[in-house]
Fold this protein.
Amino acid sequence: MAKVKAGKVELEYEYFGQDTNPVVVLVAGSGAQMGFWETKFCEMLAEKGFYVLRFDNRDAGLSTKFDKVADRCPYTLEDMADDVSGLLDALGIETAHICGASMGGMIAQIFACRYPLKALALTSIMSSTGNPELPVISEEALKMVTEVPPSDREGYIAHTAAMWRALWSKGFPFEEERARRYIEESFDRCYYPLGAVHHNMAVADAGDRRAELAKLNIPTLVIHGTADPMFPVEAGMDTAAVIPNAELLLIEGMGHDMPIGTWEQIVDGITENAGRLYTERKDYD
């Protein structure tokens, strides 16, 4: 892992695969560190012929942190999309496939809209367009994900594991050992709950992206679980309906997480969507 100056922030990042392959950038969700995109998942993508780039968003992991500014977020999702562009610039990468999950999906959407010459293809996973008419998260689930976890290690692990279990995909067995390992690694690497608060505020302030998304002209894949308690499946369906020629992949029983049992389907989806870029270009030529 390494750190680089990306515009106004420093971002921690890591690569997988051959640097001569097309780049795919993975953008994590609210409060999550780059480890959300687990090593094995990244290796699976690398085996498909990608140079995989994962990184810590601002206010997460080892990247730049922000102090709270009164009752508002000190930045926007647009700023976070600019971070992605700055990261690519700093690394000398001109174009990339962009993939994000949850808040990361929103950032990926915004990046594709703001930087059409840099975004080769878009994959939006368990995310939303910001459409105010969509079903909203239940108050119980909202409280669970926005509650500040305990600051002691065991308290944090117990609290977060309970949250994971409550929100886990109903169609897949709960992966206790995997969840605990990820939670422990996240706490030991960087405990910074204020970052998740800021991320959630930025999401709440983001607004409706449908008008801009309707202008996209790149291969797009929308992946969503049918049992998502955070962003109900209608959010994925709406995203695919808004973006021209977008493909929709609904995974039965998947919630607001990525069980190992979904990885192969998701990796294949990202790969096939990237392939659409070259097929469409060939057809156009």
Remarks:
- Strands lie at 2-6, 9-16, 23-27, 51-55, 96-101, 119-125, 220-225, 247-251.
- The first helix runs from residue 39 to 47.
